[in-house]
């Protein structure tokens, strides 16, 4: 899909082995030195870019708790390309987020695409591993410091927060949530029946948060 994205931008460039990661890296580098390319060509196709990033990130983070047993050259190449693809696409999104004049349009396009699903995956990975960047890819990172890419991915969560204000969407109040985490449709999370100040994506999250801290908080609210 990254190759499709690259071709849709009508950019001609020799790619090493025709790899999607190469296409994304070239595009990201070109945009750094050409703001017009970013605004005129990339921004109108942001929803497709986010969709590709969500797919790549999903594949990379779906088994972050189970690192691959194989250390063969083929596995290493695959991980390296996946790492480069996620880094390049996250870099492109970060460049778009830095366009202050176009931020509203960026938020709109992210909302239309798989941006919410991507934000959920980013938060799940960070909560489970301590970083938004899948350790599996960080271990094989060839593009540099993966912490920079992690920060770029986490910036997407800020997009959801801005989008949530406009659509009145809520996060699951259980900060350890590994489920839905974020609402994609208004009022789908169930509020606490006692205080009505917090909401949860599932009963298990509600029970966990109650035991951890909300029991005390809820009682304090009722005494006010």
From TrEMBL:
Keywords associated with the record: Metal-binding, Zinc, Zinc-finger
Superkingdom as given in the UniProt entry: Eukaryota
UniProt-listed PROSITE patterns: ZF_MYND_2 (PS50865)
Gene Ontology molecular function terms on file: zinc ion binding
Pfam families: zf-MYND
Residue ranges occupied by any MYND-type domain in the UniProt entry: 174-218
Protein name: MYND-type domain-containing protein
